[in-house]
Automatic annotation (TrEMBL):
<feature type="transmembrane region" description="Helical">
    <location>
        <begin position="341"/>
        <end position="360"/>
    </location>
</feature>
<dbReference type="Pfam" id="PF03006">
    <property type="entry name" value="HlyIII"/>
</dbReference>
<dbReference type="GO" id="GO:0005886">
    <property type="term" value="C:plasma membrane"/>
</dbReference>
<keyword id="KW-0862">Zinc</keyword>
<feature type="transmembrane region" description="Helical">
    <location>
        <begin position="249"/>
        <end position="268"/>
    </location>
</feature>
<feature type="transmembrane region" description="Helical">
    <location>
        <begin position="213"/>
        <end position="237"/>
    </location>
</feature>
<keyword id="KW-0812">Transmembrane</keyword>
<comment type="similarity">
    <text>Belongs to the ADIPOR family.</text>
</comment>
<feature type="transmembrane region" description="Helical">
    <location>
        <begin position="274"/>
        <end position="296"/>
    </location>
</feature>
<feature type="transmembrane region" description="Helical">
    <location>
        <begin position="308"/>
        <end position="329"/>
    </location>
</feature>
<keyword id="KW-0479">Metal-binding</keyword>
<feature type="transmembrane region" description="Helical">
    <location>
        <begin position="182"/>
        <end position="201"/>
    </location>
</feature>
<feature type="transmembrane region" description="Helical">
    <location>
        <begin position="381"/>
        <end position="397"/>
    </location>
</feature>
<dbReference type="GO" id="GO:0038023">
    <property type="term" value="F:signaling receptor activity"/>
</dbReference>
<protein>
    <recommendedName>
        <fullName>Adiponectin receptor</fullName>
    </recommendedName>
</protein>
<keyword id="KW-1133">Transmembrane helix</keyword>
<feature type="binding site">
    <location>
        <position position="379"/>
    </location>
    <ligand>
        <name>Zn(2+)</name>
    </ligand>
</feature>
Length: 417
């Protein structure tokens, strides 16, 4: 059991709600499995050759009590209890030690007794495996596999690889390094869904169908971005491949948000200027698609390219400076209304760039390593700034839309520039 004995078995009763029926604690701290209906009474089985599976499980628990829990108390804990390799090893080791499935032919009382014994062993193996998944504890950074090691300024509180979508989604309700990241964008996503629903249900005399379509592009961009981010932060500890897939979706979501942000402001900013509107929108789409293609590269998500990622999306967002200058020129730099809209755009840009800087520089955890593991880490600040920027933009373009509708029809000559 070399493989098993190196793996921590840190089960606590509060973490084992799913398996409470099968496991209970006895006085000396060693967990005692209650057999399912039909299985032989566990007390009647001695921990020797009659029940090798139980014997192995007990050994595991004792190993854990002796070493790994002590390690956790020192704050360095962690097991990696649920990697696929561990499951495979667990099953293989259990089978090698005599655990098998129930046979089909029961020829005698002896066979039946042996079969019941085997059934109990199989149940033990399954219970051990199930409890393993349910009982993960947070890890120190150094205990993470390389593909989960992203920010070494966050020392403890990391989720181990969970290898189960169910376990990943349940982890939303536990405290670890990703809890803040998950909830900031989950709540942001819900807020945008609510805002979109409110906007689209306005009566036609209040909001025209054209405005609904234009704003929907923005809302959908924001919902996709925040939703992908939520999914990434929830699922990236599932396994290396799932983590990579969702990190690509997360980056694509950012590109979609930036594209969606440009649509309403180019639409209202160049409302009567047909060609500039079409040219700028085409440029934004082309840049957005390029950003997505770059995001899909396998290397793009590596920790060493953190600044490159921040740079790609900041440059994409900052490309809006060109139409903004054009807008100021055509509307007049001293036009109070134009100044107000450019002011909202500027505030949005500042919030996004500030967020990108926090993200790229990993502030404040860089200055307080190990102190921002759970709350106030750079990524959470970045998330909050993204949501703030997205709502500032919504407010700015809403004002532009209201102003535009009070201006009346466009004059024909203004369509060409
Ligand atoms: Zn994120």
């Amino acid at each position: 059991m070399a493989t098993l004995s190196t793996v921590s078995w840190s089960v606590s009763m509060r973490e084992m709600s799913d398996y409470e029926e099968g496991v209970e604690m006895i006085g000396d701290g060693i967990r005692h499995r209650v057999p399912p209906a039909g299985a032989p009474d566990a007390d009647s089985l001695s921990l020797n050759s009659e029940a090798p599976a139980l014997h192995e499980v007990k050994k595991l628990l004792e190993n854990d009590n002796a070493s790994d829990l002590v390690e956790e108390e020192r704050g360095t804990g962690c097991p990696l209890p649920s990697t696929p390799v561990d499951f495979v090893s667990l099953e293989r080791e259990m089978l090698q030690s005599g655990v098998g499935e129930v046979g089909d032919n029961i020829d005698s009382t002896e066979d039946r007794a042996q079969n019941e014994n085997m059934s109990y062993k199989a149940w033990s193996c399954k219970a051990a495996k199930a409890a393993w998944t349910a009982s993960w504890n947070v890890c120190h950074f150094h205990h993470l596999p390389q593909w989960l090691q992203d920010n070494d300024f966050l020392h403890s509180g990391h989720r181990p690889p969970l290898n189960s979508f169910n376990a990943c989604f349940k982890s939303i309700f536990r405290i670890h390094t990703e809890t803040g990241n998950i909830w900031t964008h989950l709540l942001g996503c819900i807020a945008f869904m609510g805002t979109m629903t409110y906007f689209l249900t306005r009566p036609p005399y209040e909001t025209k169908p054209d405005d609904k379509i234009v704003f929907s592009m923005y809302f959908i961009g924001a919902i996709i971005c925040l939703g992908c981010s939520f999914a990434f932060h929830t699922l990236h500890c599932h396994s290396e491949n799932i983590g990579k897939l969702f990190s690509k979706l997360d980056y694509c979501g950012i590109a979609i948000l930036i594209m969606g942000s440009f649509v309403p402001w180019l639409y209202y900013g160049f409302y009567c200027h047909f060609y500039p509107k079409i040219i700028y929108m085409s440029m934004v789409m082309a840049l957005g698609i390029m950003a997505m293609i770059v995001s899909l590269g396998d290397k793009f998500s590596s920790p060493s390219l953190r600044s490159v990622r921040a740079g790609v999306f900041a440059a994409f967002g900052l490309s809006g400076i060109i139409p903004a200058i054009h807008y100021g020129y055509t509307e007049g730099w001293f036009n109070k209304v134009a100044q107000a809209y450019l002011g909202w755009l500027l505030l949005m840009g500042v919030l996004y760039i500030l967020g990108a800087l926090f993200y790229a520089m990993r502030v404040p955890e860089r200055f307080f390593p190990g102190k921002c593991d759970i709350w106030f880490q750079s990524h959470q600040i970045f998330h909050v700034l993204v949501i703030a920027a997205a709502f500032v933009h919504y407010h700015g373009v809403s004002e532009m839309a209201v102003y535009r509708t009070t201006m009346g029809e466009c004059r024909a000559q203004s369509a060409i520039y």
